[in-house]
Amino acid sequence: RKKCLLCNNVLMIVAASIMGCSKTAQSFEMILIGRFMCGVSLCVPLHHQYVGEISPKKLRGFANSTSSFFWSLGKAVGQISGQRELLGSQSLWPVLMASCGFPALVQLVTLPFFPESPPYLLMHKGDQEGCKKAIRQLWGEGQHQAEIDDIMKEKATMKNTKILSVLELVKEPAFRWQLYMIVILTATIQLCGINAV
User: Which of these three, 83, 114, 145, is where a domain ends?
Assistant: First the structure.
């Protein structure tokens, strides 16, 4: 999870750099490429997953809701920053376009000091000691055996479940309608008015 987030942040910084240099290069195509790279990035689902996995059970719901809050806050800050009086002027819009790289840079610098998610370490890597160390680092000293037991139960449940690749998921008829719904919802979210709000 953590490595994927780090790679994703590098992608966002590259995209921000491409968009920020578009005016100097006099190339609107660079804006299109940069926006496409931003769209391809996996920030939102990865953030939800990582934050949910590193949070203690009693704070997990709250921690997962913070990502939606910061996503909305980012949109609001972007809308405000895009005003002509701030970064929306003719000379400063490249800075506005490149500003999406700032949060990625902050996360790229700070994330290496965080441990990998405990469920990932235990379920996918089989590293029980690493899991315990990550839990102590994240949640402090104390009795965390109940959480580790929950992860072990989930691992036992997952052992009987076949994990599908993306291609297998697309080909699987049992998941077709769920996949259609997710694609339609994701594709039409820009039409729901959230940007106007």
Answer: 114
| Chain centroid to CA 144 | 27
Is 137 a domain residue?
no
Number of domains the chain contains: 2
Scan for tokens 């921690």, then name that residue: 63
Q: What is the pLDDT of residues 95-123, one digit of tens each?
A: 888 888 898 899 889 988 888 888 888 77
Distance CA 10, CA 89 (A): 27
Q: Could you tell me the pTM of the whole model? A: 0.69
In a domain, 86, yes or no: yes
Residue 15 backbone class (left: φ over 0; alpha: ψ -120 to 50; beta: rest): alpha
11-70 pLDDT per residue, tens: 889 999 998 898 888 888 898 888 888 877 766 667 777 787 788 778 878 887 777 788
Count other Cβ atoms within 10 Å, centred on residue 18: 24
184: domain range? 162-196
